[in-house]
Amino acid sequence: MNIGPSHPITLRLVTALLVLGSAGAPAADLADVDRQAQARVQQNQTAERQVTEVAGQTRSMELEYRQLLAELDQVQQYNTLLQTQVDSQSAELADIQASIESSAGLEKRLLPLVTDMIDGLDRFVGLDRPFLLDERKARVDALRASLEDPDDALAATLRKVFAAYDAEADYGRTLETYRDRIALDGGEREVDILRFGRVALLYRSLDHQALGAWNPDSAQWQPLDAGVWDRRFENALRVARKQTAPDLLAMPVFNIEEGE
Known about the structure:
The protein is built from five helices and five strands, in the order ααααβββββα. It has helices at residues 8-21, 27-127, 133-148, 154-171, 226-240; strands spanning 175-184, 187-196, 200-205, 211-215, 220-223. Strand 1 (175-184) and strand 2 (187-196) form a beta hairpin. It is rod-shaped, with a radius of gyration of 53 Å.
C-alpha cells in the first residue's frame, strides 16, 4: 500500500496501531516507532515519485520511438521513389547513348548527301538567270564554310541547306526589282533589274534609253525596243515597288528549244 501526504487518516491510523501495540511501552520507544513510521512514509513517497518519473520517461521514449518509426517509413518510401527515378534516368541515358552512337553512323551517311546538295545548289545558281548573284553565291559559300567548320554540327548545316533551297524556291514566286551593274556593250552599266519569278529577267538603263531581257538560250542580255517595252517595264516596276495595285503585266519570255 502506498502511503503519502494525501492519506492523513491512514498515517494517524498506523500511528495509533503502533501506540496500541506498544501499550505500556516507554515514551521513548513510542517516539522512535513514530519516527520510523514517518521515515517509511517519506521513503514510499520518494519511491512513488520515482515511479511516476520513470513512467513519464517511458511514455516519452515510446512516443519518440513511434515518431522515429514513422520517419523511417517515410525515408524508405522516399528511397523507393528515388530508386525508381534513378532506374528511369539510367534507361534514358542508355537510350541517349544509343542515339549518339547511331547518330555518329548517320552523320557518315549524311555527309556525302549534304555535300552533293550544296554542289547541286552551286551548279543551279550558275545555270539560272543571273539575278542577285552576289547574294546567292555568298549563301553557297557560307554553306561550304559551315560544312567544313568542326564547330558546326552536320544537322545545323543541313538545316541551312534546306533554308537555302527554300529561298531559291521563293524566287520563282515573287516579283522583284533592284539596282545592279551588268555587262553591256563591252563594259559595265548601272541598270534597274526587274525579275518575274524565274520566267523573265529584264533590265533598263537609268536614262530609259536601253532596255533588254536575259535570253537563257544564248545566256546573254538581249536588247529590246525601248519604245515598245518601256511603258510595260515602268508599270511592272511600280507594281514590284508596291506603288500601285497588282495588274496583268506583259513581259517578253524566251523559250529554250527542247533538246538544246
